[in-house]
Amino acid sequence: MSELELEQRTNIKFLVKLGKSGNEIREMLVQVYGDNAMKKTAVYKWVKRLSEGRESVTDEERSGRPATSRTEENIANIHQIMCENRRLTVRSTAEHVNINRETVRKILTEDRDMRKVCAKMVPKELTEEQK
Question: What is the CATH number that goes with domain 3-51?
């Protein structure tokens, strides 16, 4: 959720407490935010929720699979695997830990700051001993 959307939801909450209707609230949001104002259906949805007593303007937790596999545990696990055998491919590492290949590649390149050199994953910055 963007900062702008959170700000608008907070404004909707304030206006609902003042007793404004959904139409009035939508018009006010368009006056203030112009083209960036929330869509009419979203405004009405939040007016209804807040009128029914909801206090929070943030989204509720959703059930289901987490959005990412880039957890600290997986990052450490992949780092350990690569330290044991630097010749492993991203594909074989992904199969070993049961994570998407692209996620493993991002963990290696972005989280562990590694890059491929002669089919080995190595740190970008080598120590004197490693050179």
Answer: 1.10.10
